[in-house]
Amino acid sequence: MTLGLIVLLSFHVLASVFWAGSTFVLARTSGAGIEALRRPQLGASIVAVLTGAVLAAWIHGGAFGRTEQVLMIAVVASVIALLVQQLDRAHVARSQRIAAGLLMIAVIGMVAARYVA
Ligand code: HEM
Asked: How far does residue 33's CA lie from ligand 1's centre (Å)?
């Protein structure tokens, strides 16, 4: 099912790029333009988490080696970023900055995971 995996991974990376990219921009602009980005950002984060969960079960189900441990750190960083963004809506600049740092950890962990085995 290589094609299925490619399609799923593409959706995952596209959603993640939008989520992280919009977060980095909002962190830099102290939240300017949040009204237009709030819903798309939430949508992208949900797609990233759901496709990521399927990928994790599909590719790494049952394993817990060094690759999965690094992935786990990235996943925890992503989930905290999502919670901070959605629960601290009153302080947009602060929550987007915190989420940006966490999503940097997430991207690095996701990309590095397969090479640390
Ligand atoms: C709960 C959230 C997430 C889960 C469960 C998850 C899970 C995964 C899994 C299992 C893979 C495949 C790893 C492999 O090829 O062995 C992956 C790849 C990837 N993820 Fe995530 N992910 C999540 C969130 C994110 C976020 C927030 C980002 C970026 C901001 C991200 C960026 C990437 C990238 C760029 C890849 C491709 C890595 C590569 O093929 O080299 N992921 N993710």
From this structure: 27
